[in-house]
Amino acid sequence: MAHFDTEYQRLEASYSDSPPGEENLLMHVPEGAKSQWHHIENLDLFFQRVYNLHQKNGFTCMLLGEIFELVQLLFVVGFTVFLANCVDYDILFANKFVNHTDSSKVTLPDAFLPVDVCSARIRDNAFVIFVLIISGVFWLHRLVKFIYNVCCYWEIRSFYINALKMTMSELPYATWQEVQARIVEIQKEHQICIHKKELTELDIYHRILRFKNYMVAMVNKSLLPVRFRPPILGDCVFYTRGLKYNFELIFFWGPGSLFENEWSLKPEYKRGGNRLELADRLASRILWIGIANLLLCPVILVWQILYAFFSYTEVIKREPGSLGARCWSLYGRCYLRHFNELDHELMSRLSKGYKAASKYMNCFLSPLLTVVAKNVAFFAGSLLAVLIALTIYDEDVLAVEHVLSSITLLGVCITVCRSFIPDKHMVFCPEQLLRVILAHIHYMPDHWQGNAHRYETRDQFSQLFQYKAVFI
Amino acid sequence: MAHFDTEYQRLEASYSDSPPGEENLLMHVPEGAKSQWHHIENLDLFFQRVYNLHQKNGFTCMLLGEIFELVQLLFVVGFTVFLANCVDYDILFANKFVNHTDSSKVTLPDAFLPVDVCSARIRDNAFVIFVLIISGVFWLHRLVKFIYNVCCYWEIRSFYINALKMTMSELPYATWQEVQARIVEIQKEHQICIHKKELTELDIYHRILRFKNYMVAMVNKSLLPVRFRPPILGDCVFYTRGLKYNFELIFFWGPGSLFENEWSLKPEYKRGGNRLELADRLASRILWIGIANLLLCPVILVWQILYAFFSYTEVIKREPGSLGARCWSLYGRCYLRHFNELDHELMSRLSKGYKAASKYMNCFLSPLLTVVAKNVAFFAGSLLAVLIALTIYDEDVLAVEHVLSSITLLGVCITVCRSFIPDKHMVFCPEQLLRVILAHIHYMPDHWQGNAHRYETRDQFSQLFQYKAVFI
Amino acid sequence: MAHFDTEYQRLEASYSDSPPGEENLLMHVPEGAKSQWHHIENLDLFFQRVYNLHQKNGFTCMLLGEIFELVQLLFVVGFTVFLANCVDYDILFANKFVNHTDSSKVTLPDAFLPVDVCSARIRDNAFVIFVLIISGVFWLHRLVKFIYNVCCYWEIRSFYINALKMTMSELPYATWQEVQARIVEIQKEHQICIHKKELTELDIYHRILRFKNYMVAMVNKSLLPVRFRPPILGDCVFYTRGLKYNFELIFFWGPGSLFENEWSLKPEYKRGGNRLELADRLASRILWIGIANLLLCPVILVWQILYAFFSYTEVIKREPGSLGARCWSLYGRCYLRHFNELDHELMSRLSKGYKAASKYMNCFLSPLLTVVAKNVAFFAGSLLAVLIALTIYDEDVLAVEHVLSSITLLGVCITVCRSFIPDKHMVFCPEQLLRVILAHIHYMPDHWQGNAHRYETRDQFSQLFQYKAVFI
């Protein structure tokens, strides 16, 4: 990992060229260049927003996306409450009969309880009311954030249109390089940055990636506690989106974090003297955040289960094989990131390596699992074969209870099994695949060389490239 | 497009070497070489048929294909009339009950009306009778054409067998180059062409592609009115199979067309003097053809809707994603065609570029559409998830009205949405893809260079490579 | 096929370096090297087992696989007998009604006959009893073989662990080269082979592949009667797993076979004198084996039909296109094998050529079949379109008898048809594909060169690469 060290030193050096604190100093600038975009105070955040708006493909898409997120939240809570309180499942499951005067068919609306019964049931249920209040508060919080965001990005939008001379409809078809080149041009004209006369691409990257670079450095130096050695599972990595959020909360923007504002460390953290005291303070803060996490845990868990159910049930039904798909883990995304690499550059690099990485991992299906999967698939397939044959002969069989469910479940079971059985005509050449992956991810420990077919290499690589199911 | 001009001049020059009119002049040929294939009068048509028979993989395949076409026509009309008049939908939809003495099950034949009721209903319906007469006339026309074709191609078949010494079963596995080489040999022996002693490959190409070359030239010179600028949609191209058929009717073989017979322009069109008068006559002909088109329009429209319904409903049900597939447009096929390029050569060239072209177009999913599609997929997926879960728990839910339809429709809806969401691991490199396409289609305006990621380039390319749905 | 001859001579020469009979002679070995693995008597079988255990990924996988095989056998017989005797199909097909006091739903257990009725039916059925006895005997035979195998491989396992110092969990991730290198090392230490001081890789290969090399030689020299010329079908190859098993029985290990034990020919076969007499004896043995085959034929046939039904019905339902998939034929696997090529090396070589071989064969869809398939797909698609439209409008249509079966069967029919219709955008370049295949299979007759698009080449290649359905 020698290249990380040198790169890190280069990075440090570049930061000390323009230390974060310097931003508050005012340079002498020509008077005539004043404009709306002259001397932007919080340039880090400004550039980050410019970058975000580009990545989100313009203002309308961003707005729409956020509105949909708000609606999704309402929908998930509302639909769950509705399902739990307002549906008469006895009618749906034909345990109770409906008296129709006109037709003998049961329709969906028959199964819905009348509005008054339904609202009475909700009103009587303290837990439902509690959930509704919690999610109402959370939703209002999101709404306020949304309105704030709209205001901020409206400004960015007008920066794009008036200063950079790009319409929102052009934005998705412009590369970031083009946008950046225009920003560099703009600096000459409007003097948006106050410390420097000329803005280079590196300056812009530094400002956008300030926190990300810190995170990359901490992951590379193994400063974050993400590796564990539980008794049975062996060396493993635990780095979820929740953990990442907490880290960012602690270090960068939570109350009492290490940073004074969005771009400079608090002065006390720069001096080496009171290190121990600061560490103590940080420890107590982490404890409090941990307790807060523990309290919010059930709510978050329920939310995640509901959201996953609504999002993925249909996918699993349609293509159960996707359960076996893999993606780059959050840890891998952090570990394989270069310093000063923007999100879209990292994603494009990892995407290029995705196919080879998938193939590489598929070379290593556990032989034991394969044997079991083959036989489970055979037994399930036998039962399914008989059911299918009976159904084709006379579809009244489907009217027998649980036959249809059995067919569905056996089908899913077989598909899952099949994803553990390697393709007979697969060519096994891990060494080559690993070399292709290396070309894109730019990282390989020496002991992987020549050992691509070993289990240890596979295990270490799987820390970077995990099952999508785990990711979810 | 400079290369088109020079190529066109070369083409013109080559035509004047053997002007179409010359074919009627008789050259001095040795007496001993006379045979059935000696001095073929209409050599253009003859070569076109030889080429067609090769492309259709022999006589049996061609015959079978045409018979099936006739049967399809009968089937579509007959089945539609049957569905409209002879089915009691109340029984199918279980709104009316059938009294069976032996069993309680409703069978399909129960829903069919008795023959006398059915024929009475047809006899009373004037519109049905009108449709039947129209399609009967059309079918007889096709039948006559079919019988004529059989006779013609029977001759070509014996030419293959007796002159070229190729059996019909060998034909699908012989390349056109091989067939052509034998024709060139045959000329030396049988003197099938009367103007020249030796026949070159270029001669054969010229004769087969005479009209096609004119069309290519007219499209390349933008002489045909296929480009429009409707108010909102911007620059677009309208060139359907119907329009193509009409153009050919007007120029090449309709009554009063520019050509005297299948190979030579009428003499009056060769003189520049009475150009205006001829243009007037052409304009009035086009008017009459337009009126005929307008009158036939409803019949053709109904036919096309019926045919599309029968052909594509099943495909859309099975893989709705194919709606989003693309293919080379008719305009593209004409525009990208070289002079003197046979159908199979063009198709092979375009097929080679197909994969890259598809990928290129997929790089440009509208980001707005993506956001909407993602969220519609989420909401539809949530409802589907609940229905699936209920179904697996107890399949009696399926007996509730519209639940099964909802599951089907939600599934289709989600699949359509998914086709608008780009793959997460897709690598975006339009520049490279466009270069691969170029290598096969041999055409790229200068302003595409370096602008492969721009919307304008994509728009212009999409004129050549359109949605299959539009094509249909 | 000149390379086969020279290779065969080299092989013969190498065998005469260490003639099979010599193994019984004891060489002088140092006294101190004695161990459990010192002077293994049947080294051929020993090495074969070492290789097998490596290929089966260790002892646990092998054990599990064999146990599952025994269970499958029990399951297939038991389940078939159960289906034939213990299910009341009238209840399943709703021809008879069940009286429930609590619910009106028919459940699966309702359709099962009570245990006493069921066992009485089995007891009364002589054929069922006969089948049960036959399969019981066969199963016991397999069980004994299994127990014997477990003992043998337990020894191999301890050889791996104690002598080669490899745990079973490491085994799947070690290449055969690594294992072999350790065996060569071991020889120096333990003197496992008694004739030679040093063991080379070639020695190990020879011992593992002794019989396989004989088979490869016999197939290459066309000594085995596997090619036939039935009246209509033309030149074809018949070489099934059953035939292969019989050949091995006759030549290698059956009672009265050519080999004295597992490594040396009987002495009488080595002398040229009594050739005719030996041929006579062999002929009579083959006759007896043929008669035994004939007697066992119905049992084997029923078993294979049952096994195929249970294994493949579900696959055909799920992806009917896989019926059109191809794989290397048994004959191809023998014909394309080099001398001294282990199974995994052959499979990896053939797997690399698989994709190109599939594509090559797909270039040659019969044009006649394509025309028929297109039209059958159209007619089936039309009916399906109407049924789907009706179903979406009102799903009560599904309750009509045979509608659901029709939808399923029409769907399967269309998918099968589609596998005969070539992809429109397929690029046809058989010459290149054949060259890619050649690079992996290392075999091409001279008359294929330049004739890759011919039917004869295709036919000959299809002998090596046949339909999977035929393989099954």
UniProtKB/TrEMBL annotation, chains A, B, C:
Listed InterPro entries: Autophagy-rel_prot_9
Keywords attached to this entry: Acetylation, Autophagy, Cytoplasmic vesicle, Endoplasmic reticulum, Endosome, Glycoprotein, Golgi apparatus, Lipid transport, Membrane, Mitochondrion, Phosphoprotein, Transmembrane, Transmembrane helix, Transport, Ubl conjugation
Transmembrane segments: 67-87, 126-144, 286-310, 368-393, 399-421
Keyword Transferase: no
Entry's Gene Ontology BP terms: autophagy of mitochondrion; lipid transport; piecemeal microautophagy of the nucleus; protein localization to phagophore assembly site; reticulophagy
Subcellular compartments: Cytoplasmic vesicle, Autophagosome membrane; Endoplasmic reticulum membrane; Golgi apparatus, trans-Golgi network membrane; Late endosome membrane
Gene Ontology CC annotation, any one: endoplasmic reticulum membrane
Keyword Acyltransferase appears in the UniProt entry: no
Substrates-to-products reaction catalysed: a 1,2-diacyl-sn-glycero-3-phosphocholine(in) = a 1,2-diacyl-sn-glycero-3-phosphocholine(out); a 1,2-diacyl-sn-glycero-3-phosphoethanolamine(in) = a 1,2-diacyl-sn-glycero-3-phosphoethanolamine(out); a 1,2-diacyl-sn-glycero-3-phospho-L-serine(in) = a 1,2-diacyl-sn-glycero-3-phospho-L-serine(out)
Annotated membrane topology: Multi-pass membrane protein
Family per record: Belongs to the ATG9 family.
Function: Phospholipid scramblase involved in autophagy by mediating autophagosomal membrane expansion. Cycles between the preautophagosomal structure/phagophore assembly site (PAS) and the cytoplasmic vesicle pool and supplies membrane for the growing autophagosome. Lipid scramblase activity plays a key role in preautophagosomal structure/phagophore assembly by distributing the phospholipids that arrive through ATG2 (ATG2A or ATG2B) from the cytoplasmic to the luminal leaflet of the bilayer, thereby driving autophagosomal membrane expansion. Phospholipid scramblase involved in autophagy. Cycles between the preautophagosomal structure/phagophore assembly site (PAS) and the cytoplasmic vesicle pool and supplies membrane for the growing autophagosome. Lipid scramblase activity plays a key role in preautophagosomal structure/phagophore assembly by distributing the phospholipids that arrive through ATG2 from the cytoplasmic to the luminal leaflet of the bilayer, thereby driving autophagosomal membrane expansion.
Name listed for the protein in its UniProt record: Autophagy-related protein 9
